What we know:
241 residues, alpha/beta, 7-stranded mixed beta sheet
Amino acid sequence: MPGSELPTRFAPNAEVYDEAYYARMYRPHWFLRNARKYRERDEALLRLVRPRPSIRVLEIGSARGDTAFFLAPHVGLVVGIDAAPAAVEQARELAFQRGVPNVRFELADARDLSPFGEASFEAVVLADFVEHVTDEVLLPALRESLRLLVPGGALAIYTPNRDHWAERIKATVPGLQQADHIAVRSASRVVELVARGGFQLDELFFSASPYPVLGALDRLLPSLSVCRFRTCLRATRPERE
């Protein structure tokens, strides 16, 4: 499996991803990280992955394992990979504490997943990963994902949409954007990169923001790009290439 050592500078902002970063991840907040946000995220992931008890899932950028643990009861195996040692350490500790038998975590760079064989997985998940990496990381990761999927296998992406009003505000006002979000992309850009990676688009939909009161605007005008909070994309490896 992937080795235990990776270059320290796996990202231009690698220093952000320390133990404290993962310890505070998904900490509840009545406005920014409320229950609705995570409920709708989980619903979107199930729609994108379409889990079955027999499938094998690879999660790229698994962080401390929250998505992997969520998917585990629905699938046969989840392998989470992350380039940050602190992430893998915390994920492994949580897996041990929870006694989840069909989840494991490996230290690996998303650009090179050569230790995994071709057609090793039925699904590859990039949940809240795309916005953390530049194209120089994302494109190789997508090509590796294509190689690792069985023909007809699915790529599931869940990521912020740069066109949404909240992201536009964060991009304009100094200090609002998270230090770890170095590459928030528009939905059209994500679709373009996925196609360049060799995938066939299967489904594209958008979630509304979960913010109290303000989220009602997104649900009222879902056809407007400024009201599309999260890009939710499912693409497949063509049966014949």
